[in-house]
Amino acid sequence: MGWISPFKLNQLGMLNMNRRNVDYIARYNSRSSYPLVDNKLKTKLVVAEYDVRTPRLLQVVRQQHEISHFREMAEDLDGFAIKPAKGSGGKGITVITGRDDNDYVKASGSRVSSSHLERHLSNILAGLYSLAGTPDVAIVENLVESIPSLAKYSFQGVPDIRIVVFQGYPVMAMLRLATTASDGKANLHQGAVGVGLNIANGHSLNAVQFNRPITLHPDTGLALENLVIDDWQEMLVMASRCYEATGLGYMGVDLVVDANEGPLLLELNARPGLAIQMANGRGLLPRLRQIESLRRTHFTPEERAAFAMDTFTSKT
Fold it and tell me: How far apart are CA 256 and CA 149, in angstroms?
């Protein structure tokens, strides 16, 4: 990929970081709402009131002495996820997918002991993974099992869908697929694959890794051009509901399609990245400005999702 001028990027409607921070995050996101999305436990509790499902909560560890109850709770579990409530970028998340005698098997296939997981919980409480290093809370959730139609494209990690929501309207989306480079995490900066999704129908558009176009997954070798997301409209409505739940005007909504429970919310992000534009092959600005120009906004999440599906096709 050759060099492209700022003028050309502006012509393409690409949203840059400065404009995102000033014109959208600072303008539309109240600081009072940030604690809701910067804390996964608070997010789970608030979105539940708006009929947005999340992975089942198994345990909350707030104090060091509560770690002793973890081993008993997890004794009969084959899989679960440990997360720092205030972590970001996937840091501190440990996913257990099975058991091997007394050891637990991670998504990568490596084995860890109960003592290792207890030390990890202790590190979470100490704030090792939290924003600004402040003391944190650990949450243990039910293991998410991705539907086979999507799981086969991802390498040692659950694929998720990032939807950018502006004023309650889903304006752009992408599928994120884990790779060897990303260490099984759906993080584009670490080397995950981003697949742009047509808001109109959930069909794949383009795919990128490290901001460079690709057509095949680097590990699975599967073609990425004919992907289709099931339950697409339901996912857009769920993402739209997060606007009422949080009051955030500009945010990223991360969803997964569980094999048993259907679409689930993983987390919210008040500062979503801009790589989604590369995955879609188009800029966010025209869509954001179209929402800003609406003389009368739609009242319900269902109406906003339907409007987005009708308006933001692969050509707009």
Answer: 12
| Helix (H) or strand (E) segment spanning residue 269 | strand 262-269
pLDDT of 5: 56
Tokens, residue 207? 């795919």
Residues of the chain short of pLDDT 70, as ranges, are 1-11, 314-316
Listed in sequence order, the residues at least 6 apart from 114 whose beta carbon sits closer than 8 Å to its beta carbon are: 70, 71, 74, 102, 104
CA atoms within 13 A on the CB side of 293: 6
Question: What pLDDT sits at residue 71?
Answer: 85
Q: How many CB atoms lie within 10 A of CB 69?
A: 11
What is the dihedral angle through the alpha carbons of 305, 307, 308, 309, rounded to the nearest 10 degrees? Answer: 90
DSSP classification of residue 62: -
Residue 1 confidence (pLDDT): 44
Residue 105 identity: V
The per-residue pLDDT for range 148-190, each reduced to its tens digit, is 999 999 987 889 999 999 999 999 999 999 998 887 778 888 8
**Phi, psi angle pair for 2, to nearest 5°:** -85, 175
Amino acid identity of residue 79, one-letter, is G
The residue behind tokens 């207890």 is 118
Report which DSSP code applies to 253: E
Structural element, H or E, at residue 232: helix 232-246
Partners of residue 14 on adjacent β-strands:
none
Estimate the crossing angle of helix 232-246 against helix 301-311, to 10 degrees: 130
Tell me which residue has tokens 């007394």. 102
Contact 38, 251 (CB under 8 A): no
Give the number of residues written for the chain.
316
Tell me if 80 sits within 8 A of 142, measured CB to CB: yes
Question: Is the model's pTM score more than 0.85?
Answer: yes
Q: Rounded to an integer, what distance in angstroms lies between the CA atom of residue 242 and that of residue 232?
A: 16
